[in-house]
Amino acid sequence: MGARDTDRTILSVDNVSVDFGGLRALNRCSFEVSKGEIYSIIGPNGAGKSTLFNVVSGIHRPAEGRVLFRGRRVDGLRPSRISRMGMARSFQNLELFSGMTALENVLAGGHRHLGYGFFRGLVFDPGVRREERRAREEARGLLAFLGVEGYANSPVDDLPYGVQKKVEIARALATGPGVLLLDEPAAGLNDRETGELMDTIHRIRDERGVTLLLVEHNMRFVMGLSDRVCVLSFGRILAEGGPERVRADPAVVEAYLGETAC
Amino acid sequence: MTWAWRVLLWAGGAAGLWWLKGTLGLFVVNLLLVYVVVAVGLNVLMGFTGQISAGHAGFLAVGAYVAALVGQHAPGLGVGWALLAAGTVSAVLGVVIGLPALRLAGFYIAMATLAFGVVVSEAILQLDAWTGGADGMYVLAPTWFGVSLETDEQKFWLVLAVAVLTVVTASNLARSKVGRALTALRESGVAAECVGISTPFYRTLAFVVSAFYTGMAGALFAYVVSYISPDAFSIELSIDFVAMVILGGMGSIGGSILGAALLTVLDQYLAAFQDFRALIFGLAVVVCMIALPNGLQGLFRAAGARLRG
Q1: Which terminus of chain A is more solvent-facing, meaning fewer CB atoms within 10 Å of its CB: N or C?
Q2: What is the mean pLDDT of chain A?
Q3: B275–chain A Cβ distance below 8 A for any pair
Q4: What are chain A's domains?
């Protein structure tokens, strides 16, 4: 990605700090993600990656700093507000709605796109029926996009782990996001599944025009996929840039890559 | 569910009511239908969103007294308006309870609602200028386009109509986006928020809807028994309602109907053993929670699946 003027910036994290009790989980972190980019955050365990995700998606409130999404401040807003503005996410330890089928999970993701109100829901008139049918088709289409449409009517709890992860991504896409946050999408996947996931992520960006922000452990995955990488260690940003540049950065090698990437 | 099954279920329900009318009398059938409305309403709260209310007798009392007061002070008002008034006053109280309950989890919501039930009883006693205090008050028969619904049979058609309306609207709610949002919140609050489902809005909505149904049921209850006093709306009654929902199966509307029917009928047969009633109901709930986690509805569903192979 070339020069980044403000028009191209879709998400900007500006000087964000988060405290948990006495512990500073994030310390004055700043970075910007451009529209259409695949941007990854890497770092050792406890570096603050998930905390950063939780701040961006509104689950945590930063102690200082700002988060701007499409030019508007979102820090301090409820996650549901931020989601309705066009930000979606997955979770490191899956947060599917158990007791529902895969299709119902995706339908719940499309909640805000159903226009009928509470009272029409009580009556369930033909218009509501039509809307529900259309939403079902779209949800099925999303499951097909991720290659798991065969599991549409299975309860999510019964599905294999890899399928559950895809259902969760389908649910996030059902919200119609401009930015999709994926928290360790490759964790627990084998090599073949990881390859498929890389392909899926490219298709999410190219076919649906979604910007991706990833938190990941798997080095090969991140380096092969990302336009830019940001390295987090003990709540601070150590380095940022293209995969090659980051890989060569001495501070990064010392803090993180030194132990795993030899 | 296919149409054939649905027709069969409704027909079975009608036959069951007919049989009950013959054995226990129309008064018990009317009471049963009132409790169906309460159980379905409570299930919206307990089954869909997983918030337990141990004070629904309070909402029932509010609806009952609103209906009695409307009958006393505005006797010409049609039964539809009276029911709407009872439901609305109860729903407003649902907001009052629902908003602070947002800050509470599981067990503490049960405690707060339990306290609400006690407060309502106490308020009825204190407002004796209006409510007659411990002496209670008589409830005038409701009017339907100038016709006074005096007999049990006339009341039966009224209660049946409201019960059917309740079951139909609650089933629609369950399969609409609202039902999915409530279930999503129960399963994972954080994930629901992250797909744009607002926790405070929907958790409060569940309280409001539940209180509205129960308030309407309260008005029907007042009409059916025609005399109400604070001790009719005890904590035991609230617990009975919880038992109906659990026995029937949390989150299942068919289950709520079964639970309400079973407990109402059981109550009639246990009338001779009043002292053991709470013990037997309590044991039934404990056994049910251990042996039938999905309630009677789960049992029937499993049997149906086996029949179909």
Answers
A1: C
A2: 92
A3: no
A4: 1-86+177-262 (3.40.50.300), 95-170 (no CATH)
